[in-house]
Write a structure and sequence with these properties.
Blueprint lengths: L1 E5 L4 H11 L2 H5 L3 E8 L4 H7 L1 H25 L5 E6 L2 H12 L3 E5 L13 H9 L4 E4 L11 E5 L4 H12 L9 E8 L7 E2 L5 E2 L4 H25 L5 E6 L2 H12 L2 E6 L12 H9 L4 E5 L1
Parallel strand pairs: 1-2, 1-4, 2-3, 4-5, 6-7, 6-11, 7-10, 11-12
Antiparallel strand pairs: 5-12, 8-9
Amino acid sequence: MKILVPLDGSDYSKRAVAFLASRTTLIGTEPEVYLLNVQPRLASRVAAELGREITRRIYQTEADAVLEPARKALAKAGLQVHTRAESGHAAEQIAAVADELKADLIIVGSHGYSEFKGLLFGSVTQGVLARTRRPVLVLRTAAAPRGDHLRTGIAVDGSKYGLAAVKFALRHSDLFGAEPRMTLIHVVPDFVMPVMADLGGVAVPSYSEQEIKMLQDKDFESAIVPARRLFEKAKRQADEVRLAGLPGDQIAAYAKKNLDVLLVGSHGYGGFKAALLGSVATRIAARCDTPLLIVRA
C-alpha cells in the first residue's frame, strides 16, 4: 500500500503520524509511506536576491524541522518512510504528489467546522479534496484509535460510490488490523407521512406498518446485496446494520458510538462547484469526529 502523509507540524497533522504508528498489521506488510511538507514560496523578489541555492536550503531546513520528528516517531514504531519537501500552494502540491506517486491513500489531520460555516475541514484538506480523486482519510479526533483491530463501518446505498468504499476496505484490509470488525451500514427511508390532502383536496393515505416494513426490507436488500456479494467473494465477513431516517444524521450518530473509522463513497465535484462531497458525506462530516475515509468511485 502506498500512503502519502502531508505534514505541517501542527497538532492536527501529528494525528496522522500517531494513527500510522498504531497500525501494527499495516506496518508488518511494509507499506510505502511518504511524508510530505509543503513550504509557502518566498516572494519572487526575495528569492531572486537570495539565489536559487540559498532559497532551496531555506525550504529544506524548514521542511526538515517538520519531517524529522515524524520520521523518527514512525521509525520507532517499525515503519521506514520516505520524506519529501516541496514549495508552493499546499493543496495543489499535495494533490500533485499523490497523483505522481499513484498513492492508494492520503492521510490528513484536520480540524473542521460545521456545514453552516463553509468549511467542513481545514482549508488545506478542503483544497486537497477538491483536487484529487485519491482516497483521503481525514482524522479529526485528538487521539488515534486504540488497538490494531478497528471497528470499521462502510456506508452503502447500492450505488457504485458505496461499492467503491467496500472494494477499498477489502483491498486494503491491513490498514484496519489483522481482524477488523467490518460493518455494512444502510439507512432505509422511514416512510412516515401523515394523512394529508393534495392540491386537489384528495386525501393521501399514509403507509400501513406492514407496508412500511415491506418497503424497508426491499430497500435494505437492494442496497446491501451487492456489498454482501463482494465480501462473500473475498471470503470475508461483515456485520450488517439497518438504520432508518435521514442517512447523514443516522450514520453519523451510529459512527460516534460504535466505530473507530467510517468509510463513505462520494462523487465530489471539485473546487468550482458548491459541494466537494455528496450530500450524505457532507452531513456525516458535519456531525461526527469519527475518522472519515472518503473514497471516490
